[in-house]
Design goal:
Elements lengths: L13 H8 L3 H8 L9 H13 L6 H8 L4 E6 L4 H16 L3 E6 L4 H13 L4 E5 L11 E4 L8 E6 L1 H14 L5 E5 L7 H15 L8 E3 L11 H9 L6 E3 L3 H13 L9 E6 L12 E4 L2 H17 L7 E4 L2 E3 L12 H14 L8
Parallel strand pairs: 1-2, 1-3, 3-4, 4-5, 5-11, 6-7, 6-8, 8-9, 9-10
Antiparallel strand pairs: 10-12
């Protein structure tokens, strides 16, 4: 190094850094941008990075974007940030961070006009690609796009989806193996991307293994809530119908936790009186009381897959893929148990609750 270091208060650009090091700017750029396949001695690499830290070198993202026609920014459309969406976002954010990308998020609350408006706004702000989470896209965009829980076949949009058929098999065969035949169901809200496919999968598998899905023990979620309050009133509604059931298949973990609380507030025990199984395996599921049996979606990994998918398309390293399917996993915890393990005392307790409340009760005779 023949020159003394520039003052730290001065903005240090690539050319000044290269001049200080006595190296070609292209060599410095290759090292600082981790460009693969270049044979530069490790000692030189270490010297460049040490000087960049010492002189507080900051690359010009604007100049880089003009050169590469990239902003290194990804736009993300998401309804809200609850347990499910947060875990997907975590995977996306971690992966983009590792790849040197920044991201913007836009919360649209399932309002289609905002999905359209925010999609355009993200593109106008230079987003190189879009990732949609639990969002009903109606068309593709001019940039690479991936949709987590996207079920519509849209040209140029890659859907990252769970195998809901396998999830239904895991759910119902688990309850069936425990002796449950009278099973109640919660259907997801119409605006949730997974609702229709998850419900159709449950119907098909129930038919195959001989479980009857009865209208009187099926409830519909409608409210746009991300707290356990989602499942609380619908469980009250279900109990008021006076129909017996020994198990509940909830739409997701949030509604399952609310349903468990409603059961407990009426003096019923989970799983002694009613077994409950959720869906998603959000972080709180393992800490609920009782700990929740659920179908685990690899949410963080689904986010990583979506992020890598759009990056691959940006880099031209992978052809467009219409769909990427991931497998669920059954996580058995404390909220499900065999029917024949219910105690006589539990049955008597349910009868007293039914008489006191005037409502029907869950469980066996």
């Amino acid at each position: 190094m023949g020159k003394k270091p520039p003052a730290k208060k001065d903005r240090i650009g690539l050319k000044k850094l290269a001049e200080y090091l006595g190296l070609n700017p292209a060599t410095v750029s290759v090292v600082l941008n981790d460009v693969p396949g270049r044979s530069i001695p490790q000692a030189t690499r270490d010297r460049i990075k040490a000087a960049a830290r010492q002189l507080n070198y900051r690359p010009s993202l604007l100049a880089r974007s003009l050169r590469n026609q990239r902003t290194l920014t990804i736009g993300i459309l998401v309804p809200e940030l609850d347990g499910y969406h947060t875990q997907v976002m975590s995977g996306i954010g971690d992966h983009l961070l590792e790849a040197g990308y920044f991201y913007f998020t836009a919360h649209h609350r399932h309002r289609q006009n905002l999905v359209e408006e925010y999609g355009r706004m993200l593109l106008s702000r230079g987003a190189d690609a879009l990732i949609a989470i639990d969002t009903a896209l109606e068309h593709g965009f001019s940039v690479p796009t991936a949709a987590v829980a996207g079920h519509r076949q849209i040209p140029s949009v890659t859907n990252v989806v769970l195998d809901h058929r396998f999830a239904a098999e895991l759910t119902l065969t688990h309850l069936h193996s425990l002796g449950h035949r009278q099973i109640a169901f919660m259907k997801g809200q119409s605006f949730s991307s997974d609702s229709e496919e998850r419900w159709e999968s449950l119907i098909a598998v129930a038919r195959e293994i001989g479980i009857e899905i009865r209208r009187e023990t099926t409830v519909q979620l409608e409210r746009d809530l991300t707290s356990p309050e989602l499942g609380y009133p619908v469980m009250q509604q279900l109990l008021s119908r006076g129909r017996k059931f020994t198990a509940l298949v909830a739409f997701n973990d949030t509604s399952a936790i609310g349903a468990i609380r409603a059961l407990q507030d009426l003096g019923l025990s989970v799983p002694e009186d009613v077994s409950v199984i959720g869906f998603d395996d959000i972080n709180v599921a393992a800490f609920n009381n009782p700990r929740l049996t659920t179908i685990r979606q690899p949410l963080s990994n689904m986010g990583r897959i979506a992020a890598q998918c759009v990056l691959n398309q940006l880099n031209g390293s992978e052809r467009f893929r219409r769909q990427i399917t991931v497998e669920p996993e059954l996580v058995v915890r404390e909220s499900t148990r065999a029917v024949n393990q219910a105690t006589p005392a539990g049955s008597a307790k349910r009868s007293k609750i039914a008489l006191k409340s005037g409502a029907g009760f869950a469980g066996t005779d």
